[in-house]
User: Fold this.
Amino acid sequence: MKEPKLAIVHERFTEIAGSEHVVEQLSLTWPHAAVHVPLARPAGIPAGLSSPPVTTWVDGAYRMLGRSSYAPLMPLLPSAFRGMKLEEVDAVVVSHHAFATQAAFATDAPVIAYVHSPARWAWDPAFRAQESGGAAGAAVLAALAHVARRGELKAVSRLDQVVANSTEVADRIQRWWGREAVVVHPPVDTHEFTPDFSIEREDFFLLAGRMVPYKRPDLAIRAARQSGKKLIVVGDGRWMDVCKQLAAEDTIFVGRVPHDQLMDLYRRARALLMPGVEDFGIVPVEAMATGTPVIALGEGGALDTVIPGKSGVLVSPGDDTKVVSGLAEAMETFDPNDFDAKVIRAWAETFSQKVFGENMTRVVNGVLSSR
Assistant:
């Protein structure tokens, strides 16, 4: 089949996180595709894009604000997506987690939506409460949530194919949008994260990621205190002070670390802890790519990646007290010798960038061939 002419649409380039790495791989898979975003700042643009992103009129307002915060511009984003110039393409691939599916109204070409999640802050009141930051913020976010829900539902009928990044997100799409989705797991850089089988495991557990409420680092830190086990915490965020207040003396906070230091910690840790409910969870698969097992809460994306007895341990869900006790018990009884690092590494490779590109190519070609 002749390579199709595509356009790629993403929410925004304001910081580089998991969804931006997905867009980077989409761009590498289809290097001639223009990448469209409503706004961008240089520090938020992935290095692997084949060409600079195409922005909209909202980017001018973002520039006038000093590119410091996009929050005041969020009500303008649906209109910016609907006004994108997406002509003369065979298909549009949309990377969505808030408003990006509105780009489906800007084209008559087939639209494939890669959904990191429907806007959780729009659909889930408990999740929104964690992110609101006070009464005024809650009121603003509630109004914006209504706009986001309505926009997502209007756009659903214009999507030729919905792709979820995990089984958890596919279930969410079915529940909130009433649509079936195929699952294509996001790409993990298994070239950058590699094992060193000569390194022996040391007597500590690892927690890595942003210190924010929805990732529940507090549960892992409380479990380390309850189990009496050493914990090294990598990352920072607005919940850092809360986490430090909960920590035992042998919980060590190292902040953000360079790639080489993170990989060294992965390779030496007994296991990585994943205490929150993730849509997918890139960090656990990075750890697995180094041969490190994962102790995870048995909900969300972990159900796709953590295979008990093969790549880690799943802890039963429940209230906070139950989860902390479950994590603590898993830490107390954990034996790295029960796991084969080479088997874990091989499992992680099924989530590689190469596999992601192949799977997305298959999805896009399937949509085009059905037209």
The mean pLDDT is 93. Residues 135-156 form the longest helix (22 residues). The chain is about 40% helix and 15% strand.
